[in-house]
Write a structure and sequence with these properties.
It is a single chain. By secondary structure, the chain is of the alpha/beta class. The protein has a domain of about 220 residues: 3-Layer(aba) Sandwich (UDP-N-acetylmuramoyl-L-alanine:D-glutamate ligase). Strands 5-4-1-8-9-10-11-12-13 form a 9-stranded mixed β-sheet, with helices on both faces. Strands 3-2-6-7 form a 4-stranded mixed β-sheet. The chain is globular and about 50 Å long.
């Protein structure tokens, strides 16, 4: 599967990430922090823009200094934010405090009353879908109303416009009232999509059992999806298409932190598809981007440029055996 262009509309959240500084510092011992753009959808948009694509984000942010910080950061990275609307009241932007360390790593996420969950059907109806080449969303948009209904409305409008739908499962249990509801909603969303990306735990969760996760990914392709990428951490990935399955390894690196890999993988992967790479090569490009980001501070600022990613791939011994 290839995409017809490099312009993506992304449904999901933008927030703020705090990193204790310098790298390696525990949060409880920190006296200073490094702030940057956060939120999985915003991070994917950064990855795409740094690799030469275009991205527009559709979401809500809090009508305060933190929301304006997120909008300013989106502009800094070249992400179109005309469909990012402020919301007042008690809604607040997501905040993540993330340590740049592997041992005893702590990530503390604040998502109570999240502003992005206030996205409405009117918000997604204002998008001119035919001006984009694909829609991307992450699973957190489905965790609450009115965002859930808005996301499904965006799916239908994008499908009507002929856009491929790309879904990063991105299951965050703390956002959901129950695992059963999440599994049902994610299965409904996955059945509408052309590309589904998730790790073994996420596909297993959708299937109701970890052991059935790979079968769930296969079923989604049998039911009409073009690609399902079943990620297995250090074991690499199994990519399933109608033509069969291919296993790929990972690019080993000296990790600084365990976070950011999923967003950078998605950005590198869809950019590869947009550039005309074969599916296997696009997966490997995503894996290389993920390896680079976990070795750097932050997520959005850690996303590689095209030159950096090409240099990394060309100078690396290559992915581990699949």
């Amino acid at each position: 599967m290839q995409l017809t262009g490099k312009s993506f509309v992304i449904i999901g959240r933008a927030g703020m990430d705090f990193y204790p500084d310098p790298p390696g510092t525990k949060t409880e011992e920190a006296t200073q922090f490094f702030a940057c753009l956060g939120g999985s959808s915003a991070n994917i948009g950064v990855a795409i823009c740094k690799l030469g694509g275009q991205a527009a984000l559709v979401t809500r942010v809090s009508d305060d200094a933190i929301g304006r910080f997120a909008i300013n950061q989106l502009a800094h990275y070249g992400i179109d934010h005309k469909h990012v609307a402020p919301v007042g009241g008690e809604a607040r932007n997501s905040l993540a405090v993330v340590e740049s360390r592997i041992e005893d790593h702590q990530s503390v996420i604040y998502r109570n009353g999240a502003a992005d969950f206030e996205m409405t059907v009117d918000d997604v109806s204002a998008v001119d879908y035919v001006s984009y080449d694909a829609l991307i969303t992450t699973g957190t948009v489905f965790a609450a109303e009115p965002s859930r209904s808005a996301a499904f409305a965006a799916f239908q409008r994008a499908k009507d416009a002929g856009l491929p739908l790309i879904f990063d499962i991105d299951y965050r249990p703390y956002s959901w009232p129950s695992a059963e509801m999440a599994a049902e909603v994610y299965s409904r969303a996955g059945a509408m999509c052309d590309v589904i990306v998730g790790n073994d735990l996420e596909f297993g969760f959708m299937a109701g059992s970890y052991e059935k996760g790979l079968d769930k990914a296969r079923d989604l392709v049998r039911q009409g999806a073009k690609i399902a990428v079943y990620k297995m951490g250090e074991q690499g990935a199994i990519t399933i298409t109608a033509d069969g399955e291919v296993r790929t390894g990972i690019y080993r690196t000296e990790a600084l932190k365990p976070t950011g890999a999923g967003d950078s993988f998605m950005g590198g992967f869809v950019s590869g598809l947009a550039d005309g790479l074969a599916v296997k090569d696009a997966v490997l490009q995503g894996s290389a981007a993920a390896a680079m980001v976990v070795a750097r501070v932050g997520c959005a600022p850690a996303m590689p440029t095209r030159i950096e990613l090409d240099d990394f791939i060309n100078g690396h011994p290559g992915p581990s055996p699949a």
